[in-house]
Amino acid sequence: MGFDRIARALGIQEDQLTRALPFFGVYTLLFVALTMADAIAVTLLASRIGASALPQWYSLTAIANLVLIGAYLTRAARTDSGLVFGWILGTVATLWTLAWAAAQLHDGIIPLGMLFVTREVALTMILMHFGTFLQDYFVRNELNRILPVIYAGGRVGGIVGGIVVGSLAPRWGTVNLVLITVALVLVAWVAVQRIYRTTAHRDEPDDPPLACPSSGDSAPSRITSTRRFLYQVGTVPLLGWLTISTLCFVGCRWFMAYQYTAYFEVHFQDEAELAVFLGRYTQVALGISLLLQLFLVNRLVRWLGVSTTHLLYSLAMMGGLLGNLLAAGLPMAVASRFIEAELRFGLRNPVHQMMANRFGRSMRILIRGWTLGLLIPIGTLIASAAIASLLTLGGAAAVGIVGTLLGLAYVLAAIYVGRAYQQHREP
Fold it and tell me: For 404-418, what is each residue's pLDDT tens digit?
């Protein structure tokens, strides 16, 4: 009976909650590791490298994502999702171990940059495939309800990760915490394989593909399939505006990340002090994000609709960029970190997935590959080049002005996404 009350409080059915718990557990484990890796990378970048080097590492992150996600998409089309997930987690554990080993052997910029790049690549690959993995076990209508609950595991994991970093960094050394993240990823790998082998798949009818006028193939080749998808990007308003808004979001995210990292570099003179601060901040921020995701997101969607809820995040992003321009300081740096990281996971990502769920299953998989495998790396490359150029030409003030204008563009794109979402009709 208590379990039923919990399910009602979360806005889902008891059966859905029972089936969602193993996935919640895996997501929790992964985000303990990812949150720790993020705090480690930000601490080491701000204290040892400096924010001025961030654009070049942003670019390397984008290139690495393009290569590895390209390999992922090639393999994912021919392999079961559970096996692909194992490949991803094994790759993440290997990359983090190599970054840690390089930092032990050579205490310079390159190993620390490797850690930043591998953390961003790990986040992208795990986020991309986790949604695909869920689609094997939940149908579309269920996903809209259980996504906020499962993704709340990321907030729980983040709180635990923040506690671990804040407690152990001063005693063990910040970089040595990487070994804990590797162990957590390996435990998550075991849990994923257990789900894959013991949980029944659920199939759902798929939407028929939108035909491309230039191709009448009944069994299209990869080139034809690509042309068909690009045709849909240009002709389906919802897909087109999702593409534009994603590019705007990526640019805003990296501008904001540069701004708060630059301020942390100036404000905190000691690596251990910054690590402890980020650990404590993460606990509070993710606690707020957890409550938001568990008890508010579904209600906001019911009260305001998916479109307006999606718009709220873009308004917060623009407000943070404007605040950094007009009132830069520790409060705005902390607020920017919350908007760019915790609020992104707690509000933006679940609602964005709800919008993508307007499409059929096969189309949703293509959209995830398009977004995470191409749009985000391209947006990252453009943002890194823009930040580097602006720092050379006009300094931090120029970054602030352009960032605010980019935030405005993101709000406008979100408005058009909302309109397209409301007007979209399934075939």
Answer: 999 999 999 999 999
Rounded distance, CA 54 to CA 261, Å?
A: 9
Taking a C-beta distance cutoff of 8 angstroms, is the pair 414, 243 a contact?
no
CB-based contact 243:396 (threshold 8 Å): no
Render pLDDT for 166-214 as a digit per residue (tens, 0 to 9): 888 888 888 888 899 999 999 999 999 988 888 877 766 555 555 555 5
Whether residue 23 lies inside any domain: the answer is yes
What is the rounded average pLDDT of the residues 338-367? 83
Supply 126's token pair. 């795990």
- The span from the CA of 176 to the CA of 36, in Å, is 11
Widest CA span in the chain: 65
Residue 77 and residue 230: Cα distance in Å, rounded? Answer: 18
Is the distance from CB of 415 to CB of 237 less than 8 angstroms?
A: no
Number of domains in the chain: 1
- Torsions phi, psi of 236, nearest 5? -100, 110
Indicate whether 217 belongs to any domain. no
User: Between 63 and 53, whose confidence is greater?
Assistant: 63
Q: Report d(CA 310, CA 133) in Å as an integer.
A: 24
CATH of the domain at 323: 1.20.1250.20
Question: CA 258 to CA 44: how far, in whole Å?
Answer: 14
Neighbouring C-beta atoms of residue 78, cutoff 10 Å: 7
Model pTM score:
0.74
**Is residue 27 within 8 Å of residue 153, measured between CB atoms?**
yes
Q: Which domain holds residue 32?
A: 2-200+222-423
